[in-house]
Amino acid sequence: MIGRLNHVAIAVPDLQAAVAQYETTLGASVGAPQDEPDHGVTVVFIELPNTKIELLYPLGENSPIQGFLDKNPSGGIHHMCFEVEDIIAARDRLKGEGARVLGTGEPKIGAHGKPVLFLHPKDFNGTLIELEQV
Amino acid sequence: MIGRLNHVAIAVPDLQAAVAQYETTLGASVGAPQDEPDHGVTVVFIELPNTKIELLYPLGENSPIQGFLDKNPSGGIHHMCFEVEDIIAARDRLKGEGARVLGTGEPKIGAHGKPVLFLHPKDFNGTLIELEQV
Questions:
Q1: I need a surface site. Which of A34, A39, A65, A123 has the fewest CB within 10 A?
Q2: B82 to chain A: which residues are within 8 Å by CB?
Q3: Which domain holds residue B44?
Q4: CATH value at residue A54
């Protein structure tokens, strides 16, 4: 069912420093910061030959990643995102297998403009998994 | 400098349960467990179309991931691995940029039989980065 690893998302406490680490120290191809006010984050994409790293930095009040940074002040890997062809079919299969879908269970439009769902970390070895329909 | 994302490694407290989550619940292609006594882990590779997930489970006494599981009893993402063409050149560039290489600074032969180095998580947003020469 799951397809490509679309991205690994890393919450960072200092976006400018994180950009410099990936661009200068690791020599990767780093995009421009994009504010996503509807999602409470500023994102920077790092393009690797086969996938992306997504740096996440809080934007505005009530950013969904502020709590993560409060618990992990140095930052850390926040989630990984797998591509699926049909997010409703994926959700129904997951629920049938007993996995918990976060929120209402209805897909939302994610930061990339595509339908996404998140799965409960306790069902997947403490990792937060995003599914994105591509 | 960094190339492909070779794998994302996840430390898991119950290997059989983790295999079932990826194989049955997420419908991914999951390999057979491989004991790596020299590295103190049993690994299972999950093949995605563009990269791999590596499940890590402690093997024997003094497994390097036991401490991680003690701190994260549900498991969690342990590290991510980027490919480099020349690990000595990569190390020297990183040290020149002030990044800390773990251990002696000399590459070791990793679980895939190739030279690897690990970078200090505090220099990279709380994420442990492995570099592998491919």
A1: A34
A2: 26, 48
A3: 5-133
A4: 3.10.180.10
